[in-house]
Specification:
Layout (H helix, E strand, L loop, with lengths): L1 H9 L2 H39 L4 E2 L7 H4 L3 E8 L5 E7 L12 E11 L5 E10 L18 E8 L21 E3 L4 H8 L3 E8 L19 H36 L5
Parallel strand pairs: 1-2, 3-7, 5-8
Antiparallel strand pairs: 2-4, 2-6, 3-4, 4-5, 6-8
Helix pairs in contact: 1-5, 2-5
Length: 262
């Protein structure tokens, strides 16, 4: 047993250290991926629990982000289409069945002037495909010119994408506002509005206005995390097997060379 231990470890320090590094990295990355999956599952469960709570009304009073975050909310008011912002480089939340490519498009952010209140609520009305030939050719979207009732889920912001540079170009009122990201505080300062401290992501109620609201669940990607975890653990196991088998082969070869054929 001592000779086997010496052959596997003592005489193979570099190989042993390398194997331990591979095993450590593989196991660590695998555990991290499992943690990511558990986090997504917990977030989805928390969101579902909040959505089972009574529906809030944006017109009933002022709500803080802490009070309303991830809760269902209804709002009644009139859209302000001239202040709309098209958030670029947003993939369709749930691609069509059988689609191999991720289609890029816009989130349409539009302020809603709440009825009976001197307050504006920003609404993520949904997703629309982008014209790949001309970025400024916006998709046809219908906006009611009357008071509407909408329902959605409250979020702090519509999600961010990577953006080169931090400076904002001057707004040209003759052109549509196409932005990479949305800054709620900056919009309040720009327009001088009293705003709700959150956005409302509208849910699909069967309205045919040219927008898609098939939002992806928070658990999207959990299977991918499990697959990545399996790959990392497999790498760690393969590293261990390689170290063990090469060590045993070397031990056996040294045994023959020393005349220990049995």
């Amino acid at each position: 047993m001592n000779s086997l231990f010496i052959a596997l470890i003592t005489k193979r320090i570099v190989a042993t250290v390398s194997a331990l590094l591979v095993i450590g990295i593989g196991c660590g990355a695998g555990i991290w991926q499992l943690g990511r999956a558990d986090t997504k599952i917990a977030l989805a469960a928390n969101l579902l629990a909040k959505q089972q709570m009574p529906i809030l009304s944006a017109n009933a009073g002022s709500w803080t982000l802490e009070e309303a975050s991830e809760r269902r909310m209804i709002a009644r008011g009139e859209y302000i289409p001239d202040a709309a912002i098209w958030l670029d480089n947003r993939p369709r939340p749930i691609p069509p069945v059988g689609s191999a490519n991720v289609q890029s498009g816009f989130y349409l952010m539009m302020p809603l002037r709440l009825e009976g209140r001197n307050e504006v609520l920003w609404v993520n009305r949904g997703w629309a495909p982008r014209n790949n030939e001309n970025r400024e050719t916006l998709p046809p979207v219908q906006t009611p010119n009357r008071v509407v009732n909408i329902e959605g889920i409250v979020f702090a912001q519509p999600g961010r994408v990577y953006e080169l540079g931090g400076g904002k170009a001057d707004i040209d009122p003759a052109k549509p506002r196409i932005e990479q990201n949305f800054d709620l505080v900056a919009e309040g300062k720009l327009h001088g509005w009293q705003q709700s401290p959150f956005i409302l992501r509208e849910v699909d109620t069967g309205i045919d206005d040219g927008l898609f609201r098939d939002w992806a669940p928070l658990t999207t990607g959990v299977d991918r995390h499990y697959a990545y975890a399996f790959q990392w653990f497999a790498l760690a196991f393969a590293g261990f097997l390689f170290w063990l088998l090469t060590g045993l082969r070397q031990y056996k070869r040294q045994g023959f060379m020393n005349g220990d054929q049995g």
